[in-house]
Amino acid sequence: MYALLALLFLHEPTDSFSRFLAYLRQLPVTSRAAEVRRYLDGKSTPLIESDTVVHFVHLGMASTVLINGDLQSGWSQPDTMKAIPCGETALFYWSTAVPRDARVDYQFIVDGETITDPRNPRITPSGFGPHSELAMPGFRSSPWLESRAGVGRGSVDTLRWVPRDTTIKPRNIIVYRPAGYDKLSKLPSVYVHDGLEANDFGKFSVVLDNLIAAERIPPILAVLIPPVERQDEYVWSKYRQFRSALCDDLVPMIDGRYRTARVPGKRGMMGISNGGHISLVTVLRRTDLFLNVAGQSSTITLQLLEATDAALGKSVPKGLRVYTDVGVFDLAGQGDPTYSFLNTNRGYRDELRTRGVEHRYREFNDGHEWANWRERTAEILEFWWGKND
Fold first, then answer.
1. In Å, how far from its chain's centre is CA 30?
2. Can you name the residues that pair with 325 across neighbouring β-strands?
3. Which pLDDT value is given to residue 215?
4. Start-end of H helices in 201-300
5. What backbone phi and psi angles, to 5 degrees, belong to 287?
6. Among 287, 274, 260, 275, which Cα is nearest to 190's?
7. Are 47 and 95 in contact (CB under 8 A)?
């Protein structure tokens, strides 16, 4: 009988995971593990059907397996994977539908231990260790993220920045100089928060090398700034002091050492999450220094709305260019079930629209991840300073 079941299954279309589960449940428990291994042989996970249906699977010895990730309300509500006993092991699975162009991160929690998906070779970086990646068939990665042969490489300097305000702690910053720097002058400059991660996880220098070589943007200088007290500097108790230190200490230091353009239209600031918040607050408060800003998955607060009102209350500063984006599967919950980054960023988009700001707003079927944000680096820089617009 079971041989007949196997024969029938093998002659059915093999794209239905549900059909396989029904077949598996009819087998003796002790025969199931071998059949699961045979079914998964040569396949990477998650399993994708019809371009939109996804099955996350894990075969192992465990009592409970959870899945957590961007699809779980932005990592806030892990789902328990269903289990089919397979002798000494079990097949755990969780199925859902997602847009065909989605790209999200996830992890398994196996009896309390967080791991990446052992059957998924796609690993993405994050500030919290490696994640597994689901990339749907319609997802297309930016062509600017991979190093290209024959492209001139920029160089980097490490500088010690010691703010005059002693409440803001000293730190080392990285400065990217474009290829051929010694023959250049009046360079646009971009100040990047979470700058070391932007370079390591976001491939920032690679994107700059490629865009400059392709003449999509002019050669630019990038100032990559790491946080020390991230929450306080970017959002809470020290954001005013940090903003002042950036504008009154760091910008003059960079302009004094490098061949930068000394006009606000040639300066930009960008960041992700809380780094997007400090970027928006800083630029809107200091349009005498910056006229280009980008916030990705930005934290939206009352102080940002106040800064927006102060900067745009009577008129929009000429030349101001604002870019914001957010993931459809971005952070949610955060102690308040009604809160989500998607909704707050949509609200901020509407605020900018009503004020007539030159503003590019984008939503993506993605989450709160470096593997999301790095996809947009080229678009941001071209929006500010693109030579082919």
1. 43
2. 296, 362
3. 98
4. 204-213, 230-234, 239-245, 251-257, 274-285
5. -70, -5
6. 260
7. no
| Each residue's pLDDT tens digit, 140-159 | 999 999 999 999 999 999 99
Structural domains of the chain ordered from first start: 2-135 (2.60.40.10), 155-385 (3.40.50.1820)
Q: 162, 175 in Cβ contact below 8 A?
A: no
φ, ψ of residue 217 in degrees (nearest 5): -135, 160
Pairing of β 113-115 and β 123-124: unpaired
User: Token digits for 120?
Assistant: 């998924």
Q: With helix as H, strand as E and coil as C, how does 39-56 read?
A: HHCCCCCCEEECCCEEEE
Residue at token pair 């700059």:
208
Cα–Cα distance, 176 to 120 (Å, whole number) = 34
SS3 letters across 147-194: CCCCCCCCEEEEEEECCCCCCCCCEEEEEEECCCHHHCCCECEEEEEC
* Helix, strand, or coil (residue 153): coil
pTM here?
Answer: 0.94
pLDDT tens-digit series, residues 88-108: 999 999 999 999 999 999 999
